[in-house]
Amino acid sequence: MRADVEALDIRDVTANWVNAEALQHQIEQRIAALADLAHTPLFFGRLTYLAPPGTDGAGGTDGAGDAGGTDAAHGAGAANGAARADGRDRADGEAAGAEDDAATTYYIGRRHVHDADGDPMVIDWRAPVSQAFYQASRKQPMDVALRRRFGYTGGELTAYEDEHLTDPTEGDRASRLLQSEIERPRVGPMRDIVATIQPEQDEIVRAGIGGTVCVQGAPGTGKTAVGLHRIAYLLYAHRERLSRTGTLVVGPNRSFLRYIEQVLPALGELQVAQATVDDLVAREGVAVRGTDDAQAARIKGDARMAEVLRRALRSHVTMPTEACVVVRGSRRWRVPAYEIEEIVRQLLDRDMRYGAAREALPQRIAHAVLVRMEQAGEAPDDRVQDAVARNAAVKATVKAVWPPVDPAKLVLRLLSDPEFLAEHAEGLLTADEQKAVVWSRPARSVRSAKWSPADAVLIDEAADLIQRTPSLGHVVLDEAQDLSPMQYRAVGRRCTTGSATVLGDLAQGTTPWATGSWQEALAHLGKPDGLVEELTQGFRVPRQVIAYASRLLPAIAPGLTEATSVREAPGDFSVRAVPAGELDAEVVAACRAALRHEGSIGLIAADARLPALTEALTAAGLSWLAPGEETTPESRLTLVPATLAKGLEYDHVVLDEPAAVVDGEPDERTGLRRLYVALTRAVSGLTVVHAAPLPELLAGTGS
């Protein structure tokens, strides 16, 4: 398929060089989307229906939803019987028979694959006909006679497993291939889960584009993967719409984005932008190089600040004291001050954006002039009105009444001038709160100010009050529990005319302003009607590990359902108390022991402990990576600050000194939540090494 695209000759099919450049760009994108992925099979499953989907009596595609777009047409064609087995699955050793009928047998894979004649050989996992691979069960077989899962080792087909969903003599059993795929060691960046999507995950993935979905997911439930696969599904089902409006994934930090960045390209989706909230609100000339204490950051992130900014911005509008006199030729046209004031008040009452109203004001004044011209017997047209709106007298009036405002300068004044802040925060912020956010040493200019991340969000809010922020078609917001109300507003501005997928876990909120409830968060996002779904079945964290970490839930998120794990293996789990003077050496020893296992190793520690551990690892001759750096078979140990562990996962985790992780946060609840995050990063094994006493809820377990 890639060779066919590379062989295209467009020299005689474009009208001009612009069209040729655009078409060539599309061809290059298509070639990139068809890139080979090492050790990644083209298909992972097979469905055999009792009757061709789409025919009378066949229920295989019921409820599959819309699948518009180019690739969806391939799926629709397959659903109508276009797919051809042609004996291609003889690799599994099965003899030809009725099950191989071309109209009822479909191979399911990451991408749509067709043969030289254009007939489908592999159906995209997002196509309606593929949904039964994830949703069919013995209770609801969806007209599927057989579901086959294929197992691979290094890209080579090594096993297969069949489920005869309509055979009453075959009993229920867990899928060993599914279990082994879930438990496969993790080396390198995050990978897709198309072969292991569970029914409850699939329902979220295929939810319609019209509404916002919020996923509350316990550790290991695959909420991040669900969000990424959901955006891949929406791009498949609504490609034309989203290609115009754009899509975006928002993550908590750059390390996290580097970890997930290969998932969508592996599914052939190359056009999804990725950013942190700090990236979204970054503005030229506003250098973020300062920090806030916890109280100041919490207040600056409070939704009340939006109203403070609105009041401060509107205070720049003043009522006119003089008439506007427009001279055209030998005539003078006068608009009195009271009439201009009436126009200004009408614009204020409409609550338009500051910049839009400022652009409308000269046209309103010009219209008043044209009314006078018509009353005097003239017949002005739109060109005359535009000319009057550009008249120097009108411009001067607009500048005096509705002056331009720079958003950064507005925030600078609020944070530098206590009296200006007090005037516009009256009834919103207390005197103590105002004192907490005002700079002790006011900056002289926007460029010299040491802006904090929370300040940058305030500037973004002010900029939107002046000029509307462009909206995207769909935004995926991950680790959303850590956002402040003002940060939610910043993300919500990017999808005011689109939808969102919000992912998070209230128990993992590790900021002083962490989300209290998803209903509150969705309201700040501007999506109060969003649907909240909860995932509690874990696929990543071993049973013993999640049970141990869940001891913290009563203190950090008492209303949440405790997660369960489908992992059959309990995992390697130990808690070791060591003498204080031997802590570093014991941690190094635990890392050496973990490295004897397959897969990635994460050493997670409080930020304050990193210098000591760095020195100990160096002395022991152990090399390590920083979070986000790709592991290799030769370098599998990553030293992870606890503050960056969220969203990451490792086959084996060594957790250094839990008490230090808790003490590194401004309050105990936040510290326990940070510890909960660190405890739940393990896929196969967890070793906790401590010299200080464990938090009370975790005390009493050891080995």
TrEMBL record:
Residues 58-98 are annotated as: Disordered. Residues 58-68 have a biased composition (Gly residues). Keywords: ATP-binding, Helicase, Hydrolase, Nucleotide-binding. Residues 69-84 have a biased composition (Low complexity). PROSITE patterns: UVRD_HELICASE_ATP_BIND (PS51198). Residues 196-551 form the UvrD-like helicase ATP-binding domain. InterPro entries: DNA_helicase_UvrD/REP (IPR000212), P-loop_NTPase (IPR027417), UvrD-like_ATP-bd (IPR014016). This is AAA family ATPase.
